[in-house]
Amino acid sequence: MQRMSRRQALATGSLAFWITPGLYAEQLLLPTPRLTEGPFYPDKLPLDQDNDLILIKDSTTPAVGQIAHFTGRILSRSGQPIRNATIEIWQCDANAVYLHSADSNGKKDQQDKHFQGYGKFETASDGGYRFRTIKPVPYPGRPAPHIHIKVSRGDRELLTTQCMIRGHEGNARDGVFRSAGDIVDHELIQADFTKVPDSKMDEYRAEFDIVIGRTPDDRQLQRPRNS
């Protein structure tokens, strides 16, 4: 099979060639671009850290916002699922307030106390993950709505990135989105947020596969962080 270069993919618009797992077994998937962690990774993690950000503990009051089922797989460049990986997500609430004292302290009246703001999930043999959260909204200074993502395995951090809404008008004005790279990189950090058919709660769903550029082997996973 003739290999297609990245330049050829850009010229022909053949993005699916690069980003669809299993489309061509002999090709390596492009890794998900690394993006900034940002200043608002929670400085105090919530007691409830599960994968449902809509409800906190036993509360029956849901978070404000449009519910979004955020799912996908964590894969190696060869398309193999990565098991036992921990994926963390965090984002601002529907009122554009993060779960971080530097942001929320001055916005007590705005913060949605029913939004968890952070969650994590450990992948099984299929590399899959799933979260119930809200459809992301713009934040002051960040016109592109986004979800922050961190992937680790064992004691090693593998990737920090962000997922943005495909085609959102704010993307072109967003500094982080523009810094990601070329149009292929831009495609790799976006997901379609589509309405769930027949949902009575105006729910959305988005599928975002994450490709890790280099996966540490078992020996690497046993090494301390400062090695």
UniProtKB/TrEMBL annotation:
UniProt KW keywords: Dioxygenase, Oxidoreductase
InterPro entries given for it?
Answer: 3_4-PCD (IPR039387), Intradiol_dOase_C (IPR000627), Intradiol_dOase_core (IPR015889), Intradiol_RC_Dioxygenase (IPR050770)
Q: Where is the Intradiol ring-cleavage dioxygenases domain?
A: 37-212
One of its Pfam families is Dioxygenase_C
Family indicated by similarity: Belongs to the intradiol ring-cleavage dioxygenase family.
Q: What's the name of the protein?
A: Protocatechuate 3,4-dioxygenase
User: What organism does the UniProt record list as the source?
Assistant: Roseiconus lacunae
